[in-house]
Design goal:
About 40% of the residues lie in helices and about 25% in strands. The chain is an alpha+beta fold. Strands 1, 2, 3, 4, 7 and 8 form a six-stranded antiparallel beta sheet that branches.
């Protein structure tokens, strides 16, 4: 009696064949990835053609940056001078100083100014303060108030008129305390002694008065003697 050959389980050949195909695909992907990595590595080793003139390009970039910085600084300076020269003309300014005690530095001045302008308007200043020791504090806070409201007086003067002021290095009529360290910077000096401010006030067209003085307070007034245009 003939016996039939054992039958092979269905799907055995198909599964083995598909496994071979998956292995081949995976090997191909690995080979492709390796080739891409090698190509990228080779490209990174090559120097670009434009790298020859990097030194010149860097110097040009630095020159452009410096030129831009100088232009921005010039614009900033011009804007500051314009703002200072166009301050609202002051008719009078009453300076009230209150002395507050500090454990380390002794009495420190706190100045508040009541300002009346020629156009009839009024302003109350921020509180100007200073601390430390070894210099004249009262003229320091007075200078802060003058610089806040009266710089237009200095910019209305010619270079000849500010000669003799502190920092110019020239002989002239300007009193000590009118500082002009450079052509684009003019301000009232602090730490110079309050006795300098009557002459400063007179030179810029005003009058300085001491209204009151005590242990914990001082009151001064600047009055403009020229009518605004």
């Amino acid at each position: 009696m003939r016996q039939d050959a054992p039958t092979r389980a269905p799907g055995t050949t198909r599964n083995r064949t598909s496994g071979f195909r998956r292995t081949n695909v995976l090997n191909a992907e690995i080979a492709s990835t390796k080739a891409s990595l090698v190509a990228a590595k080779n490209r990174s080793k090559k120097k670009p053609n434009h790298a020859v003139n990097t030194k010149g390009n860097n110097s040009m970039t630095k020159e452009k940056l410096e030129a831009r910085r100088a232009a921005r600084a010039a614009l900033k300076t011009a804007a500051r001078i314009e703002a200072e020269s166009k301050q609202k003309p002051v008719k009078s300014m009453t300076l009230t100083i209150e002395w507050k005690k500090n454990r380390m530095y002794g009495n420190n001045p706190n100045l508040e100014a009541e300002v009346r302008f020629h156009d009839g308007t009024y302003d109350r200043s921020p509180i100007f303060k200073c601390s430390g020791c070894g210099y004249d504090k009262i003229s320091t806070v007075v200078a802060q108030a003058f610089n806040h409201y009266l710089l237009y007086k200095l910019w209305a003067m010619t270079p000849e008129q500010v000669k003799g002021g502190h920092g110019t290095g020239d002989k002239g009529k300007a009193p000590y305390g009118i500082n002009c360290y450079s052509p684009d910077h003019r301000h009232f000096g602090g730490g110079i002694g309050i006795s300098c401010y009557p002459a400063i006030s007179e030179y810029i067209g005003g009058q300085w008065e001491t209204l009151a003085s005590g242990k914990t307070f001082d009151v001064f007034r600047y009055t403009d003697e020229h009518k605004a245009d």
